[in-house]
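EI: anyone free to look at a 265-residue chain?
SC: sure, send it
EI:
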Amino acid sequence: MKKVIIAILLGLGFSFSALAQLTSTELSFLIAQAGGANKDLRDKARLNSANPIDKRDDRTTNDSRPIAAYVIDKTGTRMCPGEFALCGASTCKPTGRKIEVKQDGGSKPSKKYDEAVCTCPIITQAIATTNQTELVGIAAVNEGNMNGSCTPPPDHIWSYFSESIQYYPQESTSPPFNPNYTQTQAKSQKCSSKGTVVNCWNFLCTVDKTLTNGVKTASCFCPIGSGVFGHPASPSADVVTDAGGYFKDPAAACRMLPVGGPVPS
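SC: here you go
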């Protein structure tokens, strides 16, 4: 999962060299669930920017704050408390419809993508407790189709990411979404550009009315071919995903619209 979050940071506009310059503390605030539920990361990033990176080369702004704080302000990145869908190890199917996706925190016009539906496990308090962490997810509440709040509509749930949830029911286990998940740690793989990525970060999901093999799941509706923050994924980019980790042939998931993050070449 850490590789997936690093891919997200690349999609934010971080370069590999910029990531290398970030202190471990700054990086941890962007990829880890630190400091408790429902606490905005903004102040933490500013307080821990011992090695700040200026955004002076960004021609869209004169903001020279540390890049971590800049990104957090723009996207509304925060820890959202409560149950959420975790789609990082799921594959998806096209719906034949379009989905509207925000770009750059709503500062640019929304973009329409082909829509996919993905069955994703819901992270419950029991799963969080098993992982010895709090029940919070990393969200960017001004992105995807969120509207600035962690609170979903009734009978719905948001899809977030998590660095600290490593053991959870996954689609690729046998049976799928095996409720005995304590030995099924998320496994990342890189898919070639022949596959197509699905971005499920910050998108609305419908809570499934029936359990999937005894596991709470949600149907998440996400864009095909979108990188993070609404930008089209490069057709030449590889994809990092946790999908297929427990398939006999993990690479098969690369051909099944995996949820993941594009990695710039």
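EI: The CA atoms of residues 237 and 264 lie 5 Å apart.
SC: 👍
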